[in-house]
Amino acid sequence: MVQVIRLDRLGGPEVLRIENLGEREPGPGEAWLEQVAAGVNYLDVTQRNGAVPIALPSGLGLEGAGRVTAVGPGVTSVRVGDRAAYATGPIGAYASARLYPAERLVRIPDEMSFDDAAAVMFKGITAQYLLKTTYPVGPGTTMVLYGVAGGLGEIMAQWAKHLGAFVIGVVSKEASVEKAKGLGCDAVLVFNPLTLAADIARITDGRKADVVYDPIGRISFEASLDSLRPRGTMVSFGASSGTPAPVELATLNRKGSLFLTRPSLAAHTATAFEYQERARDLLEAIASGVVTPRIWGKYPLADAAQAHAALESGQSSGAIILKP
Questions:
Q1: Which residue has the higher pLDDT, 141 or 242?
Q2: Exposure of 164 by Cβ count < 10 A (0-12 exposed, 13-18 middle, 19+ buried)?
Q3: Looking at the chain, which residues constitute the CATH 3.90.180.10 domain(s)?
């Protein structure tokens, strides 16, 4: 039997329930993956609570790792026995095993654990496109990065420093400051929307930031815009505090001809080729020590609700995985 986390209604962590289902034969282009670990991401929380709409009833989760045990007709990209991970839909990673499109499975090296792969793939590919496509970070880039103590922030801080950026980390509490410094941040601020822009100006001798990476949303949006230099880039890619209010185009002009973008993982991995290229770049960064996967918590699959509660409350400080 296959154990799967399902939800029939939107709400708090308590809506998550475990269900036993039968195994299924892979069809054309599919593979059957026996999962060793599944990643938990904040997007899962927003899908569960309704902030990001999903059709119900539904599974949950977009990131997992395990071993291929069967393939369907026409599959050549993976073979039975391959160690593989993934970081995009279809939704349903919270499971002990599942069908998945074979061309979107990423073969992982023997030296990488399944746990690390499940913890890093979704966040790592997100970091890759944010740092290399949304805004090409390099030597001399001054960037502001929220959530440095979280799973994605950890990866972005390490990678951005390797690329040569001056990284100003923003954390939610004083207890996270030392962790952010340990990840290589050149300066760390505890978030205060009333003082953030002035603090960024002080740290940069008045120049402010080239790019701000903001996954917080409503409560941070205005402060983030005010932290940018003329023609700087605002990257709004999350909404943990709610969706930002609509922006008048004249506002961007008035604040210095700013660029504003709202990128998504789906748009940056739309083709299997692009997806695999980004995954390959991530695996190379891990192999070379540029990025080090860090797992904050491991929960049994049946305790997915507890994992969500830890992430949603701010208790966690890093990646969370579920273990079937």
A1: 141
A2: exposed
A3: 2-121+272-323
Q: What is the DSSP secondary structure assignment for residue 224, as one 8-state letter? A: H
SS3 144: strand
Distance of CA 168 to the CA centre of its chain: 19
- Give the residue range(s) of CATH 3.40.50.720 domains in the chain: 138-262
pTM of the prediction?
A: 0.94
d(CA 90, CA 98): 10
pLDDT tens digit sequence for 33-70: 999 999 999 999 999 999 899 999 999 999 999 999 99
Query: Which of 3.90.870.10, 3.40.630.10, 3.40.50.720, 3.40.50.300 would CATH assign to domain 138-262?
Result: 3.40.50.720
User: Within a 10 A sphere around the Cβ of 151, how many other Cβ atoms?
Assistant: 30
The contacts of residue 306 (CB under 8 Å, 6+ apart) are 13, 299
Encoded tokens for 12: 């708090």
Q: What is the pLDDT of residues 262-316, one digit of tens each?
A: 999 999 999 999 999 999 999 999 999 999 999 999 999 999 999 999 998 878 8
Is there a contact between 287 and 109 (Cβ–Cβ < 8 Å)? yes
The answer to whether residues 211 and 144 touch, using CB atoms and an 8 Å cutoff, is yes
Class of domain 2-121+272-323: alpha beta
Structure tokens that stand for 220 in this block: 């941070």
